[in-house]
Amino acid sequence: MTDDPAFGRYMILNLVRIAGMLMVLAGVAIHYDRIDLPQVFAYVLAAAGLLGFFYLPRVLARRWRTPEK
Q1: pTM as predicted
Q2: Domain boundaries, the chain
């Protein structure tokens, strides 16, 4: 591939968003009894997925930002 750190960071941000989306979908599946787990897992997974989808990419981007000189 490429040795560009920006490309790697871009891919990590997208993987974090996809993981968050999958967590929300798993929470919905648990809620509608497609996956046989207690309902509390549905709420925990959905909340963690939403935080991972919306908040975590911003935190990572802020951390990776080039420092001002």
Answers
A1: 0.86
A2: 23-52
